[in-house]
Amino acid sequence: MERKDIIVIYEDKNLVAINKPAHLLVHPYAxxxxxxxxxxxxKHYPEVKKVGDDPKQRPGIVHRLDKNTSGVILVPxxxxxxxxxxxxxxxxxxxxxxxxxxxxKIQEKKGIIDKPISLKGGTTKRTVHEGKMTKExxxxxxxxxxxxxxxxAAEKRKIYELTLVRAWPKTGRTHQIRVHLxxxxxxxxxxxxxxxKMNPLGIDRHFLHAESLEFVASQGHKxxxxxxxxxxxxxxxxxxxx
Length: 242
Description:
Family: Belongs to the pseudouridine synthase RluA family.
Organism: Candidatus Wolfebacteria bacterium GW2011_GWB1_47_1
Keywords: Isomerase
Domain Pseudouridine synthase RsuA/RluA-like: 14-183
Protein name: Pseudouridine synthase, RluA family, 23S rRNA pseudouridine1911/1915/1917 synthase
Strand content: 25-35%
């Protein structure tokens, strides 16, 4: 069944930008996978059928977001623009900004996390500790807002400290922001892979949203493409603000 919550936020002859909802794969990983963004793209933008490094498996896909991360996805509509965007991503020519709500109070206003990320042996998890396929990883972040959430459902009064941060990953490693924030003791709320299992905010995915992408288009003008914060995450912020 087609998803009705996939929103086009920008479109021109070269590319389309999507605000990807959570709980949606960008492309299937195996036969029989659930409905993916690529299924929607093939129906609405059939030209992407011939675009990409592996258009049969990943038509039009030049970068990805985790299944449960919402926000901006760029989709090139021609092979020429695919190559252009791929080069921008590889040479850090695209500025990526994310919003994340994390556990605990981050004291400093700004910070840089410079820790290589590896694949943890025998799993799909990433780690900043020794593992396989280690690659450099750099994330800058800034505190946007700090909260104290008094859980009304707790039997005994329980106050949680939370911090909303904006993060700019300078590299593009799998799970990078999730792993890096967890590595400094501030795992993303709802991220049960790298953080706590507790769920006082009633969230059914991690609070991570690809807020914007900024780059110079091939024609020479600057593009800043922004995706409105997903409704479920807006509700969480409303809850923690009281």
